[in-house]
Amino acid sequence: MFARVDSSAGVSFAEKVHVESQRMSMMVAFLCLSLSSLLTLATAGGVKNCHPKCRCEVESYGLFDSFSLTKVDCSGLGPGATPIPIPLDTSHLDLSHNSISHITDSMLSGPGYTTLVSLDLSKNLISRVSSKAFNKLRYLETLDLSQNVLENLSDGCFSGLPLAEVDLSDNRFREFDLNAFNTRGQETPISVDLSNNLLSTVSRNPHLHAPYIKSLMLAGNQLRTVPRLAGIPLQYLSLDGNLIRSIEEGDFEELTDLVYLSLSGLPELSVIHPNSFRGLRNLQVLDLSNNFQLKTLSPDVFNGLSALQELNLSESVATPLPVTIFNHMPSIKSATLGPNMHCWKTHKQGQFHRQIGQAKANDILTCDVPGIIL
């Protein structure tokens, strides 16, 4: 009644399944090996002219990936590694951690360097940069020379570069002339970081064209007075952690484009004179926090701050501030006066006026600490 099963046929079928399974396993292993090899080639030696100790990564752009650029990481190769040959379409090059001591005229002039957009030379031992070291880098926008031992720069070393960001922090500069950033045509505003140096003087030649610097970081230096930066169209300025003892009337008067000013953590600051911020008609954020020697402030200190929206006085000014302090800041939205003292402005709709035909809005300043004099 039941069909008879041929045992030999069953064995044959099992063998076939086993053989097919082995074949598939071999194919998967081969494909994985091939993919791994391709990835290795793409990120290392497979990119044409990629140094065997560097890591190269190609990024494609445009329709059908018709345009490509290469990121090259040659960090940590050790002393004597430069100059390094790089692919012709290199856009980003990392030469950090290589114990480089001197950037010569020829070090960055080989094929591939002319297309660089970003160059990282941080964390080396660079003490000197030749005047023509960057001459061939006509597309360079970002330059990182931080954490080196630079004390000065050769005249004209940035000439002709379309720089947008320059990091010179954590070096050994004692004085600096900002006219070093008078670059080609001044089409692009520059962000400059000179923090954590030994700067006691920062200046510019008023007889030369003002550099187009939009952001200037001078934190952690040894400045004793506010540097004269008239003519520079700064929007962001940080002087945190310097040795400034007093801020004088008109110190910032000609920085009319400034939007953000940070004067935090000045260990010797004890006086801010009236009208010190006069002229900062576009300033929106002012940070005066952590100035422990600053015991009191006159309301006239804030004359001219018509656009100020945020004020930070935490860990500064021990005495209560009079209510008239905010008369000079009609646009204020938030004020931090201590670790647990924060004030903010709210917009409250008033009652409907029959004669005017509309409701009058009221701005109300509220603080989270009861009894504070505001």
From TrEMBL:
Q: Which Pfam families match?
A: LRR_8 (PF13855)
**Superkingdom of source:** Eukaryota
| Record keywords, A-Z | Leucine-rich repeat, Repeat, Signal
- SMART domains given for it? LRR_TYP
Q: Which InterPro entries match?
A: Dev_Immune_Receptor (IPR050328), Leu-rich_rpt (IPR001611), Leu-rich_rpt_typical-subtyp (IPR003591), LRR_dom_sf (IPR032675)
Q: Which GO terms describe its cellular component?
A: extracellular matrix; extracellular space
- The answer to keyword Ligase applying to this record is no
Signal peptide position in this chain? Answer: none
Q: What is this protein called?
A: LRRNT domain-containing protein
Q: Which organism is it from?
A: Pangasianodon hypophthalmus
